[in-house]
């Protein structure tokens, strides 16, 4: 019997039962008349027939419809930029040719707009997932992150599971989710994950569903995850976002201040959105006024907060997730004065081994609190802060800040001094009493394998470190670091940096009342003026330095000043005065035991003899100086002696020997990255070619030298090259 017939018989049976009940009542109680009996019977039969009809016409009960969740948050109207990322997400989320569904991991630091991008991308492809979209905030960096079991329960309810049927065990919930999502086209957005542990249990098993995860940390360890790493907005996008939030007219009316404002926001979308909201709620507040407020680093983050949007709080979530030692590393790096750094400065700041510093740096990168940059010239990995993160790090209280500053400067002094010793051996350097902080020998040797490469890597940090020392009244560290760096500044022709360092160093020496340190700095200032072609300024600085050395009883310093003065006389064309001063300087420097500066004085005297036409004497002195430099291992000074010898040979008509000597000078200067020395050697080779009458070759050499002269702002050389080019014989 089929179910329809059974339901019909059940209806008739019900009607018959009602009829029988009435009859029984009439027989037993005798209080039911024939009319009532007949009426009851008819009613029962009608009811039974109606039931039969309903049973016959009813369809089979339908299975309840499965719910289609639509949980994506609202998209925002002023979404800006991210065109390439959106296109990539579109392609990835619509891919159907893999054994597992698309899994995209969007990562980046707080405030970059990861959630906004994920929602925008999900909304764009939502129609491709007709079985629904699930969304959850995993609260990965909150004090109480969401547990996978909790999220699984929520997803199962959204997919129509009776709450009483949801198992307690997480593993059982995972299996139920995979069962319910099998064959369904779902899009799942997992926002703000703290790592793979939170994400893996929430992944569907089949190829039909897609997952988008956002996280501050990379999720590359999740199998099959495609990374999309967010960066800052470019300047144009940043200004566009500011205009969309604050009003396009305000930005259009002051584009220069708009660019300044978004730069102060670090091109971070959250910060720009807050700045725009501040402008929107204050029509009377101009862009320049807000920019001025943000320009004060001490209070910048205070102005980047409005309503529930707060840059400081957003960043602090990542900071609070660090271990105690990692937090200490973050705070101390916030005190680092330069734009980027390797591991060894952190090792000095924390007083730990460089390998331990490297581990802390890696952790800060993973936490999106530091950015890795290209390896430097020594091969060491380097790092830098986003501007706003540096502000956050610097404002965190750090009880050890003063001691750490002393160690950092001590490490710079120790490394710079050894770099200088390797770069120009034999110099009797003048040192301060600031304590050194030594970096372990193996790491130090790796850094200083090429001392010039180390200085090039650190050149942008030297002036900030001198300023850092000056601001903390660590006077000795300030003047000595500027003094040690002088040969490198000169070789690389970084005149502005050298000038800035000397200004701070001179102020530090004078603040401390150290007349001897002041003389050392004035001596270096004289050298800078001499290289810049300002002989009068150079001579004035040398005179002050000489007086200070005399007052201090430093005879070696006095002899060094005489050497500088002799070179100024030579550059002025005052050959007799130059010869007298340089001869006296060589004698006194030899008495003081300074082989290197003695050889320097001999080389300078040889240049004077060339100008006097005493070429044989000059050649002999150049060879003497060259032998001394070679013995000392000072390859740069040796290269300059080769160049001087070549010029004397050229003046003496020995073109073959001159070409060979200039070639040796060029070889050495290129090995040493000495661009100014390279340019001078090229100039000499051009002069040889000119003397040989090979015009094209001469002009080519002069052009190469001029390119370097312009690069290094060597105006003296540029002027000489103009004369050299004019004197080239016409072909």
Question: How is this structure best described in words?
Answer:
There is one protein chain. Mean pLDDT is 90; it is low at 1-63. By secondary structure, the protein is mostly helical. β8 and β9 form a beta hairpin. 44% of the residues are buried. Helices cover 65% and strands 5% of the residues. The longest helix has 27 residues, at 3-29.
- Report Rg: 41 Å
- Cα distance, first to last residue? 119 Å
Strand content is: 5-15%
Q: What is the strand arrangement across the widest sheet?
A: 2-3-4-1-5
Average pLDDT level:
90
Low-pLDDT residue intervals, each spanning 5 or more residues: 1-63
Quickly count the helices.
33
So what's the overall shape? Answer: elongated
Count of extended strands:
9
In which range does the helix fraction lie?
55-70%
Largest sheet: 5 strands, parallel
Please render the helix and strand layout as text.
Layout: H1 3-29, H2 34-57, H3 83-93, E1 103-107, H4 114-125, E2 133-137, H5 148-158, H6 170-181, E3 187-193, H7 196-199, E4 210-215, E5 226-229, H8 235-246, H9 248-253, H10 255-264, H11 269-281, H12 287-295, E6 305-306, E7 309-310, H13 311-320, H14 324-333, H15 343-350, H16 354-366, E8 371-373, E9 382-384, H17 387-395, H18 401-423, H19 441-447, H20 451-471, H21 475-492, H22 495-512, H23 515-531, H24 535-552, H25 555-572, H26 575-591, H27 595-611, H28 615-632, H29 635-651, H30 655-671, H31 675-692, H32 695-711, H33 715-727
């Amino acid at each position: 019997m089929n179910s329809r017939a059974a339901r019909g018989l059940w209806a008739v049976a019900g009607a018959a039962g009602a009829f029988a009940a009435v009859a029984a009542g009439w027989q037993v109680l005798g209080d039911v008349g024939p009319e009532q009996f007949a009426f009851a019977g008819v009613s029962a039969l009608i009811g039974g027939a109606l039931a039969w009809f309903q049973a016959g016409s009813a369809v089979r009960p339908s299975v309840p419809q499965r719910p289609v969740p639509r949980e994506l948050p609202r998209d925002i109207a002023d979404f800006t930029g991210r065109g390439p990322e959106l296109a990539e997400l579109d392609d990835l989320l619509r891919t159907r040719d893999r054994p597992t569904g698309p899994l995209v991991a969007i990562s980046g630091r707080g405030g970059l707009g990861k959630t906004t991008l994920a929602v925008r991308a999900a909304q764009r492809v939502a129609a491709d997932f007709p079985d629904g979209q699930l969304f959850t905030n995993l609260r990965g960096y909150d004090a109480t992150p969401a547990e996978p079991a909790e999220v699984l329960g929520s997803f199962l309810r959204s997919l129509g599971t009776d709450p009483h049927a949801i198992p307690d065990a997480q593993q059982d919930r995972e299996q139920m989710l995979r069962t319910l999502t099998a064959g369904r086209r779902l899009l799942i957005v997992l926002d703000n994950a703290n790592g793979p542990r939170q994400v893996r249990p929430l992944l569907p098993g089949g190829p039909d569903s897609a997952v988008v995860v956002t996280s501050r940390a990379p999720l590359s360890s999740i199998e099959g995850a495609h990374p999309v790493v967010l960066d800052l907005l470019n300047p144009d996008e940043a200004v566009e976002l500011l205009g969309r939030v604050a009003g396009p007219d305000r930005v259009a009316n002051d584009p220069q201040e708009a660019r300044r404002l978004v730069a102060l926001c670090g091109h971070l979308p959250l910060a720009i959105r807050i700045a725009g909201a501040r402008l929107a709620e204050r029509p009377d507040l101009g862009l320049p006024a807000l920019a001025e407020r943000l320009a004060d680093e001490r209070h910048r983050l205070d102005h980047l907060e409005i309503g529930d949007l707060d840059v400081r709080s957003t960043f602090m979530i990542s900071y609070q997730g660090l271990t105690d030692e990692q937090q200490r590393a973050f705070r101390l790096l916030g005190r680092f004065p330069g734009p980027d750094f390797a591991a060894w400065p952190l090792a000095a700041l924390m007083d730990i081994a460089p390998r331990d510093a490297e581990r802390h740096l890696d952790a800060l990168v993973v936490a999106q609190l530091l950015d890795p940059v290209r390896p430097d010239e020594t091969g060491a990995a380097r790092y830098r802060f986003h501007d706003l993160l540096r502000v956050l790090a610097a404002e965190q209280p750090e009880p050890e800040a003063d001691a750490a500053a002393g160690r950092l400067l001590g490490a710079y002094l120790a490394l710079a001094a050894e770099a200088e010793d390797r770069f120009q051996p034999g110099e009797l350097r003048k040192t301060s009493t600031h304590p050194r902080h030594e970096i372990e020998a193996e790491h130090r040797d790796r850094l200083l394998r090429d001392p010039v490469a180390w200085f090039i890597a650190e050149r942008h940090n030297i002036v900030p470190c001198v300023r850092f020392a000056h601001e903390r009244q660590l006077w000795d560290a300030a003047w000595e670091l500027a003094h040690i760096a002088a040969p490198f500044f000169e070789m690389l022709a970084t005149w502005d940096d050298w000038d800035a360092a000397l200004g701070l160093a001179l102020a530090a020496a004078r603040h401390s009342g150290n007349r001897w340190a002041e003389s050392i700095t004035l001596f270096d200032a004289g050298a800078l003026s001499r290289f810049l072609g300002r002989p009068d300024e150079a001579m004035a600085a040398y005179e002050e330095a000489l007086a200070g050395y005399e007052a201090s009883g430093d005879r070696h310093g006095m002899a060094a000043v005489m050497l500088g003065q002799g070179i100024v006389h030579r550059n002025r064309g005052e050959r007799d005065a130059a010869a007298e001063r340089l001869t006296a300087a060589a004698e006194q420097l030899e008495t003081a035991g300074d082989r290197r500066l003695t050889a320097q004085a001999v080389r300078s005297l040889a240049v004077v003899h060339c100008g006097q036409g005493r070429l044989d004497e000059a050649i002999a002195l150049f060879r003497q100086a060259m032998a001394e430099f070679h013995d000392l291992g000072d390859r740069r000074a040796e290269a300059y002696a080769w160049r001087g010898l070549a010029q004397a040979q050229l003046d003496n008509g020995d073109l073959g020997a001159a070409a060979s000597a200039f070639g040796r000078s060029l070889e050495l200067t290129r090995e040493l990255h000495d661009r100014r020395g390279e340019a001078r050697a090229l100039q000499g080779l051009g002069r040889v070619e000119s003397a040989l009458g090979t015009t094209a070759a001469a002009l080519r050499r002069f052009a190469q030298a001029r390119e370097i002269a312009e690069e290094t702002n060597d105006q003296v050389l540029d002027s000489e090259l103009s004369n050299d080019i004019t004197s080239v014989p016409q072909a």
